[in-house]
Each structure stands twice: as C-alpha cells, then as structure tokens.
Amino acid sequence: MKNFEIWSDEDDGSEQHDEKRVKKPKYRIRDFDECLSGKENKSTCDQNPDMARCPDGSLPITRQIYTIDFILVRQYRQCPGDPLPEDLPEDLFVEQIRIDLQKFRSFPIKGSTIQSAPNKFSLRNGHTHFWASKETQEFKSNLSGANVRIKAIPIQWNWNYGDGSKRNLNFPGEAMPGHTLHDETPTSHSYSETGKFGVNVTTLYRGEFSVDGGPWQAIPGQAAVPSNTLPMDVWRTEKELIAND
Fold first, then answer.
1. Are 11 and 174 in contact (CB under 8 A)?
2. Cis peptide bond prior to 226, omega within 30° of 0
3. Structure confidence at residue 31 (pLDDT)
4. What is the pLDDT of residue 27?
5. What is the DSSP string of 128-167?
6. Cβ contacts of residue 54 below 8 Å, gap of 6+?
C-alpha cells in the first residue's frame, strides 16, 4: 500500500499568501487482482478465461484510491506499464517498504523450460506431448535498510505451438515415459500440416514478498515471462504411427 499527500498554494487574503501551503487530504492506494476481489492471497487468478488480458498476456489488476477515512474515490483497471493518472503525479506518493508489480517484474525471473515427446520431432496428425517446468523462484533485495525476500510462483502456461494454435493452461504437464503419437494427453498438440514450427510458452508468475522475516504478502498482478523457442520438425507418413524409442 502507498500513501501520498497533495499540497497546494492557496490565497488566504494575507500579503504572505504565496508562502502559505495548504494541506490537502491524504489518500491510500490499494491494488488487488481483478479476478480475486477479496481473495488476494489465492493463486487461482487464471480461472476466468474470458477476462480481457493485458498486452503482455497477463491479467489486469484493479487499483482503488481511498481517502484516509476509507472512502472510495476512484477505481480503474491497471496493466503493467500503464501510467498513473495525470492528476496523481508519481512524485506525490510516499513510498512504504513494498514490492509492487513494476518492481516484481524487474527481477530476473526465468521462463519455463519446454520439452516434447518425441523430442523436437513429430508426424502430421500425431499427438505430440509437450510439458514445461514448474519452479518457484526466490530473490532477495534491500529496501530502505530492510531485508526483503521475493517469491515468483508459476500459475499459468500460455502455449503457442507455432502453427497458429494457442492454448492457456493452469498446469504445466509432466513427462509421460509411455507416451506414443497415438496418445492424446492434456498438454499434447496435433499438427495438421508438415513443416518446421517454433513452440514457446509464456509463464505467468504471481508474487509474494516478506520484509525482515515477516509474513508473506501478495503482490497483485503477474509477471509474464516467455520461454526459449523449441524447434519442431513435423513430417508426413503413410505408415502406422509407432512409439518413439
């Protein structure tokens, strides 16, 4: 949470009015995940597939501005990189020790690693099995003399198979040693054309932070981190599909 105070010059009828500064109300800002109003500590912000996404594929957050007496004066949708309202310049905010979405996205969060079976190869109309890594990453920072720990927790995998097909899943899949191209899996994909394709996945990470060993607090919003591209070579065959050795 951030607080800010607004000051302005105001004429009080005296000769020294230009030296007088009048204190305007102090406001509070509350950010929370739009799809989890009242449930900010949950990790299921990916369960509303119809919500309009931000340009980077992440889900928007809601920003609310309150008076010091907790009267709501403004609420709006916020995406990463959106500027502050023009009447609320950034230099009027009084920062507290807190990790906001912009700071969270600045940490070197790694994208998921993709694997496939068969490895980088498939047959047209076969079911290529894909899966991605799922690792919680942790970082440390020093803010105003406080030791801050930050967690990046993967919650969603947005797949792009390189042939125009895309899919958003809330699980990464897993290795399936007995898989054959006959077998459709929850994370498999079938190519209807032959050719060379590039597969990638953008992983959405939610964040938590802890100050000086205190409780973990949610960071509203997500960081969208792309993976490296996995090349796929899809061939045509007239023979029966067989298992990959």
1. no
2. no
3. 73
4. 66
5. EEEEE----EEEEEEETTEEEEEEEEEEEEEEE-SSS-EE
6. 60, 79, 80, 224
β-pairing, 146-160 vs 114-117, is: unpaired
* Residues 225, 104 contacting (CB under 8 angstroms): no
Point out the residues of the chain with pLDDT beneath 50.
1-22, 36-47, 94
- The architecture that CATH gives domain 2-235 is Sandwich (2.60)
CA 240 – CA 182 distance, rounded (Å):
9
Residue carrying structure tokens 């809601």: 62
Say how far residue 87 (Cα) sits from the centre of its chain. Answer: 27
Q: Where are the domains of the chain?
A: 2-235
Query: What is the pTM for the complete model shown?
Result: 0.63
Q: How many CB atoms lie within 10 A of CB 149?
A: 17
Alpha helical stretches, state H, the chain: 101-105
